[in-house]
Design a protein that fits this description.
With 108 residues, the protein is mostly helical. It has one domain (22-99): Cytochrome Bc1 Complex, Chain D, domain 2 (Orthogonal Bundle), CATH 1.10.760.10. 61% of the residues lie in helices and 0% in strands. Helix 3 (58-70) packs antiparallel against helix 5. The chain is globular and about 60 Å long. It starts with a helix and ends in a 9-residue tail after the last helix. GO terms for molecular function: electron transfer activity; heme binding; metal ion binding.
Length: 108
Amino acid sequence: MNRAFRFTLAALSCLALTAQAADLAAGKAKSEQVCASCHLADGNSTNPQYPILAGQHPDYLRKALRDYQSGARSNAIMADQAKALSKAEIDNLSAWFASQPSKLNMAR
């Protein structure tokens, strides 16, 4: 193996060890505990006051929750909900909602 290839392989191995896959089952369980009353457990809210989370990009959902935690995004209810979440819980919730089929009505 050449030196560049070994370096690349070592770097990718480190990334794989540090990146932790989200736990969909944990995301589902957490959604049932803290999200379902407004967004429903699968993220397909039927109340127009609460956004549909199902099918959203996980990066968007993670950023939104972290922004609620930090105060960069303002909503009293969501700020309180988000502050109680760990990084792993945010990752799990984001992955769970992203994996759910969305019932958004796409008008054209």
